[in-house]
Amino acid sequence: MPEDLADVLHQLIVTTRILANEEVLDAFGHVSVRHPRDRNRYFIPRHRAPELAEASDLIEMNLDSEPVRPTQFRLYSERVIHGEIYKARPDVNAVVHHHAHAVLPYAISGRELVPVFHLGAVIGSKVPFWDQRDEFGDTNMLVVKPEEGASLARALGGNWMVLMRRHGATVAGADLRQLAFRTVFGCHNAKLQSQAMAHGGRVDQLSPGEQKITEAGQLGPTPIERAWDYWVRHVEKAGLMPAKVAAKRKAAPAKASRAKSTSSKRKAKKR
Amino acid sequence: MPEDLADVLHQLIVTTRILANEEVLDAFGHVSVRHPRDRNRYFIPRHRAPELAEASDLIEMNLDSEPVRPTQFRLYSERVIHGEIYKARPDVNAVVHHHAHAVLPYAISGRELVPVFHLGAVIGSKVPFWDQRDEFGDTNMLVVKPEEGASLARALGGNWMVLMRRHGATVAGADLRQLAFRTVFGCHNAKLQSQAMAHGGRVDQLSPGEQKITEAGQLGPTPIERAWDYWVRHVEKAGLMPAKVAAKRKAAPAKASRAKSTSSKRKAKKR
Amino acid sequence: MPEDLADVLHQLIVTTRILANEEVLDAFGHVSVRHPRDRNRYFIPRHRAPELAEASDLIEMNLDSEPVRPTQFRLYSERVIHGEIYKARPDVNAVVHHHAHAVLPYAISGRELVPVFHLGAVIGSKVPFWDQRDEFGDTNMLVVKPEEGASLARALGGNWMVLMRRHGATVAGADLRQLAFRTVFGCHNAKLQSQAMAHGGRVDQLSPGEQKITEAGQLGPTPIERAWDYWVRHVEKAGLMPAKVAAKRKAAPAKASRAKSTSSKRKAKKR
Amino acid sequence: MPEDLADVLHQLIVTTRILANEEVLDAFGHVSVRHPRDRNRYFIPRHRAPELAEASDLIEMNLDSEPVRPTQFRLYSERVIHGEIYKARPDVNAVVHHHAHAVLPYAISGRELVPVFHLGAVIGSKVPFWDQRDEFGDTNMLVVKPEEGASLARALGGNWMVLMRRHGATVAGADLRQLAFRTVFGCHNAKLQSQAMAHGGRVDQLSPGEQKITEAGQLGPTPIERAWDYWVRHVEKAGLMPAKVAAKRKAAPAKASRAKSTSSKRKAKKR
After folding, report:
1. Which of B27, B262, C1, C13 has the fewest CB atoms below 10 angstroms from its CB?
2. Is this prediction's ipTM beyond 0.95?
3. C78 an active-site residue?
4. Which residue from D27, D101, D137 is facing A192, i.e. has the nearest CB?
């Protein structure tokens, strides 16, 4: 993950646009990133459709999910999902909560989501379920109270993805690029498992050994960078690349040379 | 809902474009809105594909679905659906009749459509069926006679969505934005329920308590505005934003400042 | 159908583009129209992907599917499908042979395709199957010999659509617009029936009386014109509207005023 | 296949863009071609998403999949798939490894993929399975060692497509255009077979005689050229046509006249 704060926040917006463009996020859902230099804070957009969020919409939160500075912006009611996971999991630096149609059938049917192809290994060895109703009874089905967020974080445990019954999923990452990779291929895995189940017979899955070795391999820098560059190109083609970047680049060319994103470099060269 | 008539009619066109862009409407189907100041009248486009309808195509109808002023335009043969529901339901101010592929499988299989995820709560606690054949025998399957419309309105009863066997669905709203929200997420709920059923086992659904609390929450202004802004952005990107608005704005800037649509404001600023 | 030959040929190209844009045709398949003034001839493009065919690619054929004038163009090997149906069915003036993914599952599973919603009534009361293997044994699975085309025409009989086992479908129309309407909504019906069957229970279908009355109603000029205008708009947005039209219009404005296509009129006004 | 090296390499990039545009390749997968004048060498892009690969990214390999000239580019870890198949199969001159969602359900469910419609005949009379686990136990599921590539090539045997359990597929061709044709229609066949199986009953398939005769027919120059021109048009419309071509054409018009691609000719004429 970049160390420069502006670069991190830009990457947060790019990640969000990727997940919107890859049919993970729609009008709802949200992505956050832990502050690169203060582990007790994180950034998340103000309340709006994630695809529409700009860098100027990002709010700095403490881990109780309260804004560090007063703001007049409306906030996501479910931001405790992010704060409580950052509290419980020091190894997590990026979180997305989504309602992707690929995974929702599992949240409804209760069928276990398992890695069925090599890229699906990145969902981890287990994807637990969480049912808000178990602990909190009939609610508005949103994770708004700190204790609801903490309960979800407990269900996640040491895993990287949790299915929320009749609601959606929450995915965690060591950084934003890993998060994007796990989330998109988690959705592909879910779709493919559903289609294989429709064949009517037994559904194969990765052996525990395959899952472990393959997860480690796919989460290395090479596959993630390759997929990231591909998704960025598609975000650019969809006209979704955050406009602010170009402005920043023009104003501060020295900064651009530090950017980790090869796709941004490519773009910069073209101009 | 806006109180200004021009704003209401513009919102009707925008709602229609949203529902076309979100794959609810195709060549067929229609959306109407009750007159904001005369509860015995409503507006609906002349006979044409809803995506193609402009503000200049809107016809003012009385609740018997007859044009208030003589018109040479061809009218939708099924407009009694709208008039009869406005008669029966004073709390309804907007109606859409559609044949979305997401819900038609239920109209064919007869499987009950139930809320299976939080956003699906907005279809209400029950989605009744109506079969034109029960009362009227073999017909051309269009709801053209006042008594056919009245029969459909009775089947709808106090609910917000009714499935029409071998035909489609009709959805009602307290206003146009609520109508768009209920219709789109009703379609998402239907798709997800079909996919969860294909997993072959039990399909979970919201408890009655969850449905009630969640419906109330999701129909508040915040979720609806967030989704509306997102859909409007996509309508703009698809080149479907009604052209007339810009013209009106230029001619009457004072009016623009009263517009409720944040997306329209955004657009106005850009120009 | 227009009476002017140039208008008919233009409409043939537009119909083809509509069917390509509506996911009926891909690299393969073809559309033809009977000569408006000589019932023993028909027009069909030279051998190329139908979406790419221009008016200048159209070849005039006799009903034995031989070119009326010598041509150096390669011809569709399966053109006898068209000629033999025109021979057998004086009421047919337009034919399409396609491999749409919506209907192919029926050609593979052998499940009967039945009208399951009102617009599906236009497939007719029966969609027969034809298996080339029954009469001709192992072949290259193309309908290339006159006797193969005649066999298919016999299987079609007095119906309007025939499913070809392990191959595709052939659809007939009284004119090109009716053909487009029947073909597109036949595909929608097929998709919806598949989805309803996946619900696992009984699948409803139109009663014989409903089918007959509804077919007659939907094949009237009003629904067909409404759908046509909608599809033309989408063809225009996809950049697929045949370029030649504009040129012709400019050269001969008098002719344009005779055109039946409202969408063409609309286009003409805009320029 | 063109004999001129530059033309072959351009066709490799075009084939790759076609397969990306037709939803066969995404961030992963790769296409290669044997050197047209040195049967012990082949070309494959450096490590990057195939859709993003340019002619300048192509690396010349020997059949042990080592670069003929030193390179600082990162290489595909799975390039032995290509080298080992070229070693084992003198009749193969083009290879693609992919994870298309159309075929992965078979790699997961273990259901046999069979030709179910005429165009599907090109997958050949048998599509064998290969499970890396059988011979190599728990691995990172990538085909990286020469012996893993050789094992896969043995599983392919004399066939043209092999399904890799929990991973994807590899397809071979006598040339690049045949490869594209077999790969795309192999995916269509897979989708259609899945949909036909979902109808719940028996699934028809081509008889051995039909498969053999039809495969021979479809792999002739006529169907392949027709489909190629169609896919190229769609690649052009998607803005994916490799930019280098135009430059080369302008610099060397004499070469352009030798090009086999009719679509390129068409493009050249328009300019």
Report:
1. B262
2. no
3. yes
4. D101
Kind of pairing between the strands at C161-164 and C168-173:
antiparallel
In A, minimum Cα distance to B197 occurs at A109
Residue D271 burial class via C-beta count within 10 angstroms: exposed 0-12, middle 13-18, buried 19 and up: exposed
Sign of CA dihedral A196, C107, B138, B27: positive
User: Which of C47, C167, C194 has its CB closest to that of D198?
Assistant: C194
Number of residues that this document lists for chain B: 271
Q: Lowest mean pLDDT: which of A241-250, B158-167, C44-53, C119-128?
A: A241-250
Q: What is the pLDDT of residues C145-179, one digit of tens each?
A: 999 999 999 999 999 999 999 999 999 999 999 99
- Given CB atoms, is C265 within the 8 Å cutoff of chain B? no
Q: Which two tokens stand for residue D24?
A: 């066969």
- Strands B41-45, B58-62: pairing is antiparallel
Tokens 């979902």 sit on residue: D198
Distance set, CA B79 to CA B96, B150, C86, C222 (Å): 10, 12, 40, 15
Indicate the pairing of strand D129-130 with strand D41-45: unpaired
pLDDT for C243 = 73
Cross-chain residue pair C213–B138, CB shorter than 8 Å: yes
Instruction: Show residues of chain A in contact with B206, CB under 8 Å.
Output: 141, 166
Closest alpha carbon within chain B to C117: B166
Which DSSP symbol is given to B60? E
Which pLDDT tens digit goes with each residue over C79-125?
999 999 999 999 999 999 999 999 999 999 999 999 999 999 999 99
CA dist C210 and C215 (Å) reads 8
**Number of C-beta neighbours around residue D71 at 10 A:** 11
**Where do we find the tokens 């029936």?**
C193
Q: What's chain A's length in residues? A: 271
